Amino acid sequence: xxxxxxxxxxxxxxxxxxxxxxxxxxxxxxxxxxxxxxxxxxxxxxxxxxxxxxxxxxxxxxxxxxxxxxxxxxxxxxxxxxxxxxxxxxxxxxxxxxxxxxxxxxxxxxxxxxxxxxxxxxxxxxxxxxxxxxxxxxxxxxxxxxxxxxxxxxxxxxx
Length: 159
Fold this sequence. Notes:
By secondary structure, this protein is an alpha+beta fold. It is built from three helices and nine strands. Helix content is 21%, strand content 37%. A hairpin with a 7-residue loop joins strand 7 and strand 8 (117-121). The termini are far apart.
């Protein structure tokens, strides 16, 4: 069995001396009424013909409809989610207006078994949150990236 791999970019900023991250609520009917565990780093799957960094940049554009902001890519490493998917994330310090997001779409049969295909947004909203606010909302397997980013920012600010 081939392990699925995904890569993404986690934007961060400091506002009033407090770290904030930009996270996205997953779109589509399966996530519509959920909040806890229904948010994600903007990311997506990639195959063997694409590097994780290239995939992270492509997925950011596809999911948010905006160019990747200029800035240093800070590697936050990878983690294995509960379903076995390996996720690689970089952080980028940048500001972005959530109102400017124009999400891409995906198709799926809905309602299931109906034979009808409908289009849904990849993400239905994005928001800036402090890590403590983002953590319970993020897919559990991605919370480690908040910890790694917080450590990076602390070390940078102390240095």
